[in-house]
Amino acid sequence: MCSRLKLAFVIVCYKTAYSLALTSSFVTNETMKISSNNLLQTETDGVDPEKRFNGKPLTSIFSSGHNLRNLDPDFHKSIEYLVTSKGYPFEKHYVTTEDGYIITMHRIPHGRLTEQKKGSLPPKPNRRVALLGAPLLTESTIWVMDFPNNSFGFILADRGYDVWLTNVRGSSFGKHHTNLSVYDIKFWQYTFIDIGAKDLSAQIDYALKVTGREQVYYAGMSQGGASLYALLAKRPEYNRKLRAMAGLGTFRRSCHINIWWLNSASTLENYLGRLSIIEVMPKISMLDRACDIADKLCLWYTRTFLYTDIKYLNTTRFPVYMNHFPSGTSKMNLLYYSQIMQEDQCTTHWNEVREYDFDRATVTGRWTRARYNSVVHRPPTTVPDTISSVVKPRGRGSGRFLWGVFGDAKKLNPEMYNGQTEPPILDPQNIHVPIKLYWSEGDRYAPPAEQTLLKRELRSIVAEYRITDPAWGHYSFSSSPYNASVFIDVADFFDDCSRGAEYCTFRPF
């Protein structure tokens, strides 16, 4: 009965996706108007037709029976291939955090070497260092999935920056630990506060050590920006290690979110509390298959969960995007999102963003099953010393399932926060890095109301870049053929700060 219901659901989703795709039009080189408080009005499409993949509309691909992997050479390729195939150097680095997570960083030390430049002197050393932080459920690949004319990592490298692409614990490039495996419940006890305070801090320190520089430039999108806000609020000494920050669709709370499947904090919290998993949305092949053999279903998924409008999505490239999405996170991290979605976070306590509230978590006091799609690690030989009392593998010896009995619900905040019954406040007054906000009227994940609150509480915001077109959604910042103008403006902002521009000198230490 259950399998029949699942099959019926897939059929309905497929038919819905097919009808949506038939009514959608292919993205063209139309212009997009962008306004900025600090710049003149700009009109740009950000597209070089000669370098852009000249694919067919999805309706044509589907009706003619083409296989997507034969149409795009970047389909099912690694990040190393995506970088080196475009003519850029590529390096892989491993960073160990203070609590034992091993994070993979990817580096593009300089721009492309053309045929004329090959054999000449190597690029000059001591380039300015730029770190890029990715959104929730994504990875470093998001900054190099397109072409040199509209991929953030490539644009910064060609502008003279030493580009470091960061990753986080729990993602595809953060599933290793010095002592724990992904089967350990303790491995998944983190939020983006930990990502900022531990993962980002370690990667900033590592990049500075390798390059010999004293400061980095940082650009973060969505959670990539929120985690840096958390780092600077929690460990203000890191302000001195950053020269400037560009925040693309960033936030500190998410109570203004306007997505139908995330429109209620209580609904999200209750749903997650009922789920028996502790790893959420790891990288799996199912979405790749959907994009390979049922591209209309893939389009439906993309429009439903990522884009509200595909006007600024290159629909012939999204099978490449889905190769690298989702990349996984922890259930605890999403529970923290449900906490910062509470209404009082935008009203009476808008300036009191706190760390994770362990006493509100809904993961204690019952049997729980955890399912994993990644089976390369063995089950743990020791039991985590926090809330789990029993962990043992079950199910045909595959190692894909864990069963655990969680202990009685008890007050954990005093234990986790040195006796405090309430989680500590992440004080925005500790953030001193010059910040430029990039936001869109059509962003439903980090909407204009959240940007207004950011401008009220962060004193170091020195400029903003506002996109007025409501069709420009949250993920348009990372995966659109029209986003080059945004990335170029970020590079201009970093250049201004490196030259000591007056508007980029707010550092009240």
UniProtKB/TrEMBL annotation:
Residues 79-145 form the Partial AB-hydrolase lipase domain. The keyword Signal applies. Residues 156-478 form the AB hydrolase-1 domain. The keyword Lipid metabolism applies. InterPro entries: AB_hydrolase_1, AB_hydrolase_fold, AB_hydrolase_lipase. Residues 1-21 form the signal peptide. Keywords: Lipid degradation, Lipid metabolism, Signal. One of its GO terms (biological process) is lipid catabolic process. SUPFAM superfamilies: alpha/beta-Hydrolases (SSF53474). It comes from the Eukaryota. This is Triacylglycerol lipase. It comes from Varroa destructor (Honeybee mite).
